[in-house]
């Protein structure tokens, strides 16, 4: 029996095909929705609307690269929030790998918040 026939018989799958540009866009939207379920415990707004996500890249291979920050280096969840982000994003169907990098430049400030977040917090 050939190796290919053996793999098919054992249910082995071939590497998945790269995502189309449309599928990458859809997956990115689903990743953003997952990020909207993660909250900074000190501010009752999700981290996406807070502007803590500086860069989000989704590759055709399903790899997600996130550059994010925290409200301050002394944030009490500095050790756990990036892991929560990684876990939530990794649970999105189609995501193969997640890389989360915490950066401090530029420093986060209130201007990075979405208008929705500012309205929710009464900041004008």
TrEMBL record:
InterPro entries: Fe-S_Maturation_MIP18, FSCA_dom_sf, MIP18-like, SUF_FeS_clus_asmbl-assoc. Transmembrane segments: none annotated. Residues 1-22 are annotated as: Disordered. It holds the Pfam family FeS_assembly_P. Residues 30-101 form the MIP18 family-like domain. NCBIfam families: SUF_assoc. This is FeS assembly SUF system protein.
């Amino acid at each position: 029996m050939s190796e290919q026939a053996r793999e098919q018989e054992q249910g082995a799958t071939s590497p998945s095909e790269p995502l189309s540009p449309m599928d990458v866009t859809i997956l990115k939207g689903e990743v953003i929705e997952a990020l909207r379920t993660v909250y900074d415990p000190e501010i009752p707004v999700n981290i996406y609307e807070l502007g803590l996500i500086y860069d989000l890249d989704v590759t055709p291979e399903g790899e997600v690269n996130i550059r994010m920050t925290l409200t301050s280096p002394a944030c009490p969840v500095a050790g756990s929030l990036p892991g929560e982000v990684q876990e939530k994003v990794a649970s999105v169907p189609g995501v193969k790998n997640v890389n989360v990098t915490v950066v401090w430049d530029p420093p986060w400030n209130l201007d990075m918040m979405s208008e929705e977040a500012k309205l929710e917090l009464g900041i004008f």
